[in-house]
């Protein structure tokens, strides 16, 4: 499956490429992680603090899949508003999940801090604005729900948005606790750190499941073999066949990076910006004062996708940026299309297979994939330890 097309931005920011060998022998381990993207990297880092012998295998290069097309917004808010989620799964469960996601952002900061080289993790607020007047009441309802449960949130009217950001929208919520990151730097640094703590890492290693031998799950590659007590599939959108059986869908989105901007003084706090309309437009800044923007999602991976289509979407995304900040002198420097998965209820798929003991999945489907992956890494580490994991019932595979 080709997970992205076009010219990606993040690979150009990685100065040093670390190479890992392919598997060429037989290895026995406690935990095998299949997939070297964001979810796999966070699982590897989490397990590197345990006595479990852990192995990570990636069929291509580390971070070469969806992680290199990730736009790096880290938000605790779901694509589904808290009050909407409460109507579906109950207020207590919805609030609990939101708080777990906020904790995951805090934990991502803790993990990112000591990484070398730096991964450009910066705490940012989020401005979530009403795309039109009809969505103002939804934002008011969301404000009341967030405020009721102790989340740090402010309600902005039209005048305050104009004062703080310069553009006009009917209303907005300013939430606090989110962040931005260079996702590819984060993946590579996490896996390098885990490798330094004796997690074995293999690139260019395509594994095929062979079944069980006693208490071990067995996997073969062209030149090697792995026997593992526990297995975590962190293969993201490559796992769409399995995820579809759970109710997931695979869609396509578009993103751009702009040329650097001299000044972003009208962009208060360099907040992450997104809207209520679906599919939504969103944008953020980078450490070198570029703007990353995305949206224009397609619900199915149909139709042609050539350079003309990507450039057409890039022009539209640039136009959307300039609708907000018309004085910016910017052009598109990078434009790409990427596949992404969504679950019907807006929640990730994290947990143990219902029919295969000790086979787990960490699938961060949705707009908050990195946050979900951090949440999943912690949950699965606890499950492998045989401990009850807080919130596991909310995201389990057979919910």
TrEMBL record:
Residue ranges of domain FAD dependent oxidoreductase in the record: 30-383
Gene Ontology, cellular component aspect: cytoplasm
Domain of life: Bacteria
UniProt-listed PANTHER family: PUTATIBE OXIDOREDUCTASE (PTHR13847:SF201), SARCOSINE DEHYDROGENASE-RELATED (PTHR13847)
Protein name in UniProt: FAD dependent oxidoreductase
Annotated source species: Jeotgalibacillus campisalis
